[in-house]
Amino acid sequence: MEQEKSAREILAYIERNLFKGIDLDKASRLEGEERRTYRLSQVERLLAEKHGSVALAVYLSDMFWTADEGRKLPEHPNPLLSLKDQQMLTKEEMDRLRLILEIAGLCHDLSQHFVFDLTEAFGIKNRFWIDNKQLFEWLTTTEYEWIAMHTAFLLRKHAINVFIDSYYQPAQDGMAELFSREHRELIRHPDNTEIPPRDYVKTILNELLRIDRHWKRGHKLKLDPEVVILHDEIYGLIPLQFDKVILQAAQELYDYMDAELQGKLLAKGLRPNVMWRNQPKSVHRAADELLGHFAEKVREVRSKYLAKGWVEDVSLAFGYLMAHAERCLLGNWRNVSMY
């Protein structure tokens, strides 16, 4: 009886404090698109509403799962997630619980910014990337502005990870330090910004589309992806267009790296899958020597092609190029893919 009381009391507490004045019995009988619409309306309400400094969406999701990806159970799970305790609830209570769990699940993924099933949540193509036109249209037209805002933040987070995996540092840093010129504010967490939701979404989507167009333009010009990245590293950011002189500089660095750096440390005894600090001293010495030669090559190219002030030794652009050279030395070359 104590377990039955515990589960029922928790369900009643959730309904009373998070769904006050809402007919969950009626809503729990909805199906298909009507159920999705209802679920979205409740998630929107919970994301937008504050309780102290904690979003109610986070509060609801924390009642069932941890902040870890995959909706992991805490050390002491909520009795409402126990099959044994659920069997003590009435059919009507179980129907309401199922609906609450659907709402709480989307609250969890949105508030914690974990990739979720777009088809189940929004009824659109399930692909979290720039080429999903349905996703971009949904985000810019939906009435659920807070859901769109959190989803755009998640898309930005996902894009940064893709750029990291693609070794595309200018794009990675550009998204991480994204700035709204209209509102003169960095794009921060949705709960810590004064930017209106629609403008917030627009700022993220416009930058993602700009990077995507730039990358595709490079492909159309038949540029090697490494040359595209070198070009943008010299700029220190993602430019509006390709510069012919910068491309010449990028190509010369590419040719040097391909001939003088590519995989050289493997020949010097680099041990794959061993941490850098545990590599042989001969590998460390070789890396220092080869990177020193590359730095001289950068200075030579800088003098040959670039105006004064470009790619100075202390600049971000110089740092990008040196990191690129390190990757090349380790054999991570010509394997860049954005899609």
List the helices and strands and how they pair.
Layout: H1 2-18, H2 24-27, H3 32-48, E1 50-51, E2 54-55, H4 56-62, H5 83-86, H6 91-112, H7 118-122, H8 133-141, H9 145-165, H10 169-176, E3 179-180, E4 185-186, H11 197-220, H12 225-235, H13 244-260, H14 264-267, H15 281-305, H16 316-329
Antiparallel strand pairs: 1-2, 3-4
Distance between the termini: 55 Å
The share of residues in helices is 55-70%
Radius of gyration from the CA trace? 26 Å
Which residues sit in consecutive blocks of at least 5 with pLDDT less than 50? none
Q: How many DSSP helices?
A: 16
Arithmetic mean pLDDT: 92
SSE pattern, N- to C-terminal: HHHEEHHHHHHHEEHHHHHH
Placed side by side, the strands forming the largest sheet appear as: 1-2
**Strand percentage, roughly?**
under 5%
Q: Tell me, what's the shape?
A: elongated
Largest β sheet strand count, sense and barrel closure = 2 strands, antiparallel
* Number of extended strands: 4
Structural class: mainly alpha
Plain-language structure description:
This protein is mainly alpha-helical and 339 residues long. The protein is 62% helix and 2% strand. It is built from 16 helices and four strands. The strands form two sheets. A two-stranded antiparallel sheet has the order 1-2. A two-stranded antiparallel sheet has the order 3-4. A hairpin with a 4-residue loop joins β3 (179-180) and β4 (185-186). α4 (56-62) crosses α6, α9 packs antiparallel against α10 and α9 packs parallel to α11. The mean pLDDT is 92.
